[in-house]
Amino acid sequence: MSTTLSKDHSPGGNPLGEHTTRSPLARLQHLLHSQATIGPAVVLLVAVVVFAVLSPRFLTPGNISLILQQVAVIGTLAVGQTIVILTAGIDLSCGAIMVLTSIVMAKVAADTGLPGLPALLLGFLVGTLCGLLNGLLVTRLKLPPFIVTLGTLNVFFALNLWYSQSATIRGTDMPSLLLWTGQTINLGGTRVTYGSIMMVVLVAAMAFALKNTAWGRHVYATGDDLEASRLSGIRTGRVLLSVYATAGLVYALSAWVLIGRIASASPQAGQLDNLDSITAVVIGGTSLFGGRGAIVGSLLGALIVGVFRNGLALAGVDVLWQTMAVGVLIIVAVSLDQWIRKVKP
Amino acid sequence: MTTPVLQARGLVKRYGRVTALDGSDLELLPGEILAVIGDNGAGKSSLIKALSGAVVPDEGEILLDGTPVSFTSPIDARDAGIETVHQSLAVSPSLDIASNLFLGRERRRKGVLGTVFRMLDRNGMREEARRQLDALGIMTIQNPGQAVETLSGGQRQAVAVARAAAFGSRVVIMDEPTAALGVRESRAVLDLVLQVRDRGLPVILISHNMPHVFEVADRIHIQRLGRRKAVVDPKTISMADAVAIMTGAMEPPDQAA
Q1: pTM of the predicted model, to two decimals?
Q2: Alpha carbon of A25 to those of A22, A150, A292, A341: distances in Å?
Q3: Are B92 and A230 in contact (CB < 8 Å)?
Q4: If contacts are CB pairs under 8 Å, which of residues 205-264 in chain A contact chain B?
């Protein structure tokens, strides 16, 4: 991400002239501190190499396409989750918002014959409003984000069951636009879904906004130190509201990807996707304490989980060990974050 | 008599049953460093918070260049040209120096990149940050792209002071700028305070450190029990007497200020 942030940490260009005698370990700590995405990038690279050696099928275009499809839903969800976590919040309701909006999009179109585009836009509106509700509860009632989203997780999930009457809407009953994210395009021999492409575009757009706009700086500053940001003249309440609402909109995009992926809209889909999105963000090097991390890291985090699951499956490892591997990755990633945060000036 | 740049009249601030400000006055004259001293609980912080917009006083008025103003947020005070260096510094550690200097008032690129894509003028802000740090003689910081958390306490303070000096057009308020610093760093920050005044910006300096106060202040405002007890001249009063007035052990001499 921020390659210009600490150019001068290279030997000789040290601005403070204090750490000329740094140990290799301390230098690694500083590097990871200034470049949060290096860790996950290295892990992903190593994992890809190892699995490619273990299984000749791993690097085939078909398998890469499969991994991208499997990652697309969590990857888009993680974009919303990342901006919430950057503000030192957490969003447990992201999966519920996604499922609710997917049902709204599909059922409105199936029941009333509404065309694809208005149905889609209605879903985006519902997602944004759900996120806005989270934001209002966090900023106006000053409740901890964990509690707010734990509550709204249940509220949104119940609404989803009520509106869908617990019935799945088949893809054949929907306008084709809603299923478009599951269609593929041939990119250099690999068939890639539009949903996967959308994930990458979304990550790029959000990375740009976080890095290059005032809003992005304010998101980081608010998560870093809320009171300091307020005293610096940032309208922190508005920043938080905008973050939760934007996250809601992003979850609605995930809903679109989800419909394409499973070629239907199921009220029972994505039950654990909220936790998987947090996993991707954490493995991607974003700190749960806020103010530190990057959206690209979350994409890498989602890819790492996808690659581990896929690679271990290809190597014939039982699914329970895949789950354990992901668990270990989380612990390692958070321990690494704790260590990195203790960096000395 | 010249019009005070910033004036407070009869400010009252209550927190439940506690009266933090009990009809407090304050006058800041053009081009001076006014030190505000007082015991713990004398209402220094509440006074400063009212002047910087961080709290809204229950009663009383604040005048800027003789015109009544009312601040409901720190942004209002800032827009009026009053910059505050808070004791907690109000810097964001993980952002770089330039981002911190421009926090809350970022500059955008010219043209489509700025208006449509809202892209920040990163290089422009870095250059301006460089200029501001140089203008204040802060040479130890070489790279405005450096993250603030990699700086020492004194350097962070320098960043906060530079931000206030760069954007303050009327008044700079500094709350305990040397409290957490070592001897050498305190020295550098006091020099910064003098430089800000020499640029023509009046400064309100809150401090517990009497030697620092007596070294740089033009006048000393002594706050006691939520009110202004006295305003004294550091050239004519001893440090011991100032402390005695502050703690109530001595009545102030006839009010001349």
Answers
A1: 0.84
A2: 8, 39, 21, 14
A3: no
A4: 208-209, 212-215, 217-218, 220-221, 224-225, 227-235
